[in-house]
Design goal:
Layout (H helix, E strand, L loop, with lengths): L12 H7 L1 H9 L12 H4 L2 H11 L4 H12 L12 H7 L6 E4 L7 H10 L6 E5 L5 H14 L2 E5 L8 H9 L11 E6 L7 H6 L1 E3 L7 H10 L12 H20 L16 H17 L5 H12 L7 H14 L27 H10 L16 H20 L12 H14 L7 H7 L8 H30 L7 H12 L4 H4 L9 H20 L5 E3 L6 H16 L6 E8 L17 E4 L2 E3 L2 E3 L4 E3 L7 E3 L2 E8 L4 E2 L2 E7 L17 E8 L5 E7 L5 E7 H5 L3 E3 L5
Length: about 725
């Protein structure tokens, strides 16, 4: 709001908001702020586009709807409605020199539609398909040569996986002579969006894409639309099949629908498609006929662990898919009115025996077009998270499209803006840490592993500071023409102008999703914490977000306890005590605990800490993240094997959750598991094998697993 007031059309805007805070509060709380009348003079004085800027400031989660309204207002309704997927129409637009390109989307496989179209065109026997990969180049070239002579079709799949061969593909397409090629020849290509795909081929080709159906209703409708009563009355247990198949179809829709919530839905977005559903359906028919009693355990294992779980690479996502499947493949689904969600809107129905297919279609038509988060087991705030993530990505794309030259408001040039920002950041950086002096003050000792941790962290911070100082100094000189503007420096300059973290900084920094301004502030806070430690003594409470490698801190805490009590470290694990009687920032802690360590600075997403019940509770409306209380990591030897009424809370460094898999099998973004009181008795029992090969039976909270609850060391802001 303050930034908007600088612009001409918004003079006095910030003061007006302050003077009429009640009216603006109503605007902020509105369910549809994009159509809400702006308070005071602003409804009449601002244009439709300028109102979008106000919406972006107050309610970024509604900007997508606001942009749609703006497009309809300026251009018309048809510009926000995608045309239906029409393969025959696309084929008519192609020629022997115009490839037909399927731009792939996650969750959609055009192969089935393509084969059906080839059959209708009597080309099934004149079709060659090849999935591209290392060493497949000569085979693809031979297929193209034969097809151009005989008038056949060639389908080259997954071009994005064979980037080194793309220049050759471009050459082959340019060499096609329409006067020498058979008129029936067609080249079909499939590829995910990729920077390595030849631009000339893309420009000359006919582009097609088929987005997966959005929403549970659309997904269910697509599944049932192609069926009939006969197909729904198969097996020797038709009533059971109908209910279990509906559960399976809804399970498939839920898995795909969770992708729209980003990391809150899945740590990694997976490409579940109709093939997974078809295989699971075939197995359901087979096992219903094979056994007198329905083998729910076998069906559950095959479906969630093999058919769908085979695509899942993250162990936290495997836990989630396991929980979701247990909602659908359960004996309770055979009962009338069994609910799949808390609202009861999504439930198991008993169809009319004379109109089975129509009964299900009518039920599906009665479902909402846009499902609420409760259908996925999530809090209503998940919609805000989903919308804000979409807006952030959209605005980042807009920023990348802006001109790299030209002036800015107030007559300042791009170079001036970058230079001033670089100078301000450089002047705010401290001197490098004196590693030798620190090692002398905090020497390696048997009973204090934190000394070693501090010295290791200083090495990483010094490495980051050196890169910052060097690039900031050089980019200022390059902007003045005193140094060569290399590719690296140009990237730094562009990132500073766009408020991004430069790639060269990211390479030596801790993971972060913050924009540049917030990142610099966060770095300053981390450096201040470390400086206080260096100047004073080992802290009584640790800001867990400070560390490049927080796992080392956790290990060091266990080492201190093991050495102090002369116990094997592999027999020790943490007991997590949530000290909500202390300030959340640890400012009122003045003494260390007898054993273990106090940590603070974690944030919860998908739930909050309830200070009344001392357990997890539902998030407050519009509160996407909340601070976790101070946690006492208390090392305990030989903890009990059964842990009840807890939620195994995954802790990550930043909100993205996903990361490169390290040698441990975990994402490099993953820090540890913590146990937190769940506040619910709905549990999921799972026997896990620990690092010491001992088994623990965990009774985990199904509610918080579905809600995607996790803790983070740092946020996006």
């Amino acid at each position: 709001v303050t930034v908007l007031s600088i612009l001409g059309a918004y003079q006095g805007f910030a003061q007006d908001v302050y003077d009429n805070i009640g009216e603006w509060q109503k605007y902020f709380d509105s369910a549809t702020p994009q159509t809400h009348t702006l308070p005071g003079k602003w409804q009449e004085s601002l244009s439709q586009f300028e109102k979008l800027c106000v919406l972006r400031s107050f309610r970024p989660d509604k900007v997508s709807e606001g942009m749609q309204d703006y497009i309809v207002f300026e251009m018309g309704q048809r510009f926000i409605e995608p045309p239906p997927f029409d393969l025959p129409l696309s084929y008519v637009s192609a020629s022997v020199v115009s490839p037909l390109i399927f731009v792939l989307s996650v969750g959609v496989d055009p192969m089935k539609t393509f084969l059906e179209f080839a059959s209708s065109m009597k080309m099934s026997k004149k079709l060659s398909c090849l999935s591209l990969g290392q060493g497949q180049g000569p085979t693809a070239e031979r297929m193209l040569e034969e097809a151009t002579e005989k008038g056949e079709w060639v389908l080259l799949q997954n071009c994005h996986l064979y980037t080194s061969w793309m220049p050759k593909l471009e050459q082959l397409c340019e060499e096609i002579d329409p006067d020498k090629v058979h008129k029936d020849f067609r080249l079909w290509l499939t590829s995910m969006p990729s920077g390595s795909f030849p631009v000339s081929v893309l420009q000359n080709g006919v582009k097609m894409t088929n987005e997966p159906p959005k929403g549970l209703r659309a997904n269910l409708n697509q599944t049932y639309f192609k069926l009939d009563d006969e197909q729904l009355a198969v097996t020797n247990k038709p009533e059971a099949f109908q209910k279990l198949f509906f559960g399976l179809a809804l399970f498939h829709a839920i898995l795909n629908g969770r992708r729209m919530y980003g990391a809150l839905g899945w740590n990694i977005p997976y490409a579940f498609n109709d093939t997974d559903l078809d295989i699971s359906t075939s197995q359901l028919k087979l096992y219903l006929d094979m056994y007198d009693d329905i083998p729910f355990g076998v069906l559950d294992l095959l479906t969630q662990f093999i058919n769908y779980g085979g695509r899942v690479t993250d162990d936290k996502d495997l836990r989630t898919i396991d929980i979701i499947m247990r909602t659908y493949y359960t004996p309770k689904i055979l009962e009338d009115g069994y609910s799949f969600s808390e609202s009861g809107l999504y439930k198991s129905i008993t169809p009319d025996p004379d109109n089975i297919h129509e009964s299900y279609l009518n039920y599906i038509k009665g479902l909402p077009i846009n499902p609420e988060p409760e259908a996925f087991g999530m809090h209503e705030n998940a919609n805000i998270t989903c919308a804000e993530n979409e807006v952030i990505e959209r605005f980042q794309t807009i920023v990348t499209m802006q001109s790299s030259s030209g002036g800015s408001g107030g007559g300042r040039s791009r170079e001036d803006i970058i230079g001033d920002a670089a100078k301000a950041i450089e002047e705010g950086l401290p001197l490098l840490y004196d590693q030798e002096a620190t090692q002398m003050k905090f020497p390696v000792t048997y009973l204090e592993s934190m000394n070693t941790l501090l010295c290791q962290e200083l090495i990483k911070f010094n490495k980051l500071l050196r890169v910052l100082k060097r690039t900031l100094y050089q980019v200022q000189r390059a902007l003045k023409g005193l140094d060569v503007m290399s590719t690296e420096l140009d990237g730094v300059a562009t990132s500073i102008f766009n408020q991004w973290i430069p790639k060269v900084w990211e390479a030596v920094a801790y993971p972060s999703l913050k924009p540049l301004g917030a990142w610099v502030t966060d770095l300053d806070q981390r450096l201040s914490f470390v400086q206080e430690w260096v100047d004073g003594e080992t802290p009584v409470a640790f800001w867990i977000s400070t560390f490049f490698f927080p796992q080392a801190f956790l290990t060091g805490t266990l080492q201190n306890h093991a050495r102090k009590h002369q116990e094997p470290i592999d027999t020790i694990s943490f007991d997590f005590k949530y000290r909500d009687d202390l300030m959340a920032d640890g400012s009122d802690i003045d003494t260390k605990p007898e054993d273990g360590a106090y940590i603070y600075g974690l944030f919860l997403e998908g739930a909050r800490w309830d200070y009344d019940t001392h357990t997890l509770g539902d998030s407050n409306p519009k509160e996407l993240f909340s601070s976790a209380p101070v946690i006492h990591l208390d090392p305990i030897k030989d903890r009990e094997d059964v842990v009840e009424n807890i939620f195994r809370l995954p802790v990550y460094k930043e909100l993205k959750r996903a990361g490169m898999l390290s040698t441990t099998g975990h994402s490099t973004n993953f820090v540890c598991w913590m146990e937190i009181p769940s506040g619910t008795d709905v549990c999921w029992r799972k026997t896990l094998v620990s690092e010491t090969n001992s088994q623990k039976l965990y009774a985990d909270s199904t509610k918080w697993i579905k809600a995607g609850v996790a803790a983070f060391c740092a946020l996006r802001y």
